[in-house]
Every structure is written in structure tokens, then in C-alpha cells.
Amino acid sequence: MRHRPPLSLRLGGVRRFLVPRVDRSRPNTHVCAMSTQQLTTEAMALPLSERVSLAQALWQSIDSGLPDTDEREAVREAIRRDQELTSGVVVGRTHEEVMQAARRAIGCV
Questions:
Q1: Can you tell me the distance from the alpha carbon of 85 to that of 78, in angstroms, rounded to the nearest whole number?
Q2: Closest Cα partner for 64 from 52, 72, 56?
Q3: Strand 31-35 versus strand 14-20 pairing type
């Protein structure tokens, strides 16, 4: 069975994910809106093995959406970037700086 990513929508400037929830009092009713923060909180509460499985599924969904690359060219690019950082030609950014820039780029500030 293929894993399907959750549907999402934007409500009041906040991205919300439609996550299946079973409502036993009403048959066939199982969708509610969940913010990214709520989804993250729920995911972080999962046992380690389930978080690992979730992380792998998310990574695979991202990886499958990326264009194929020439592995040798990717290694050459990594070596070139490492040399730039080592020599001081470019200055690296912290993980937090990169994540903030990524959030701004996709509109999740």
C-alpha cells in the first residue's frame, strides 16, 4: 500500500494539514484540520521507531520530487563548496539561519 501525504490548506495565514481522525460516534467522519505546529507536536510524541519511519517517509517524498543528478557531479560540487568554506572565500550559515531562510522562501514565517 502506497503512503499518501496529508492534504494541506491555508487558513488564516496558517498552513493546516487534514489528518485522518476516527470519530466513532459519526460513521465516515475522519478528517480534521491540524496546524504544522500541532502536527509537529503530535509527531514528536511518537515512539522513536515511529518517528524514524515518519522521517524516512517524509524524506522519500522529498527525494522523489527532486530531479535526478549525476552523482560524480554532485561529489565535485561538494568538494568545491568544502574548499570555499575551508579557504574562507565564503562564510557558512548556522542550521537555524538556513531553516529561517527556507521558511521565508516557502512562506512559513
A1: 11
A2: 56
A3: antiparallel
